[in-house]
Amino acid sequence: MQGHYNVLFVCTGNSARSILAEATVHHFGRDRFHGYSAGSQPKGFIYPQTLDVLKAVDLPIDGLRSKSWAEFTTPDAPVMDFVITVCDQVAGEVCPAWPGAPITAHWSIPDPAKAQGDEATVYKAFVLARNLLQQRISLLLNLNVAALDRLALSSRLDAMGKVPSNDTAG
């Protein structure tokens, strides 16, 4: 593996966490990493708070949409180098056979769409998800991918999913 890497973030609804991850990798990955997202059961919409927390840190939202993981299993789909599940529900599902045999990992991120309370409380849940993802994605983007074999990469990606947050929702 060397050069340019495609990363697919998978969640159930593809309306919050995986979208946050896609936008983050797409922006900060620049020439090395390209972010994608998909859902096993896409909702067909993106939560407004997802877009709001991206805009709050000047991340572009153009082109983001809720889509099925089936789009990434077709012969003309981009080949993924990494597939990362970001919700516990989809991690337990039988995933498709991804073309190219990408390295897979699971990063458990609390679902901000399940947050209850007033508008500010719900917004903070989306900020927390964005911050957790950005912390883990930063580790991914700083990996010397070309210097590691598949087993080491897999181990590092799994370890990233267990990184405790030292960040708050604020």
From TrEMBL:
Keywords: Arsenical resistance
Matching SMART domains: LMWPc
CDD domains: LMWP_ArsC (cd16345)
Keyword Signal set for record: no
Top-level taxonomic group: Bacteria
Keyword Membrane part of the UniProt annotation: no
Protein's GO biological process: response to arsenic-containing substance
Domain Phosphotyrosine protein phosphatase I: 5-143
Classification via InterPro entries: Ptyr_pPase, Ptyr_pPase_sf
Entries under PANTHER family matching the protein: ARSENATE REDUCTASE
Protein name: Arsenate reductase ArsC
Source organism (scientific name): Rhodanobacter denitrificans
